[in-house]
């Protein structure tokens, strides 16, 4: 029974690793296409958006 649980955990871990790898590759492809925005610009936009939302509530 314990061996079955270990096997399931190992499979789940391997699936997560594949998902992470795919996300990283997707991100790299987006960078190559020029679709990535500057991190500081995104943070500033989000900060302003949430400040505006808080003021209007």
Describe the overall structure.
- The N and C termini lie far apart (54 Å).
- The protein contains two helices and no strands.
- The model has no long low-confidence stretch (mean pLDDT 87).
- Helix content is 88%, strand content 0%.
- By secondary structure, it is mostly helical.
- The chain has one domain.
- The protein has helices at residues 2-33, 39-56.
Features of this protein?
single chain; 57 residues; mainly alpha; 2 helices
Class of secondary structure makeup: mainly alpha
* Overall form: elongated
- Return the average pLDDT rounded to an integer: 87
Distance between the termini: 54 Å
Biggest beta sheet attributes: none
Please tell me the total number of domains: 1
Helix content: over 70%
Into which percentage range does the β-strand content fall?
under 5%
Helix and strand succession?
HH
List low-confidence stretches: none
Number of helix segments? Answer: 2
Using the CA coordinates, give the radius of gyration: 20 Å
Strand segment tally: 0
Oligomeric state of the chains? single chain
Question: How would you sum up this structure in a few lines?
Answer:
This protein is mainly α and 57 residues long. It has helices at 2-33, 39-56.
Topology:
Elements: H1 2-33, H2 39-56
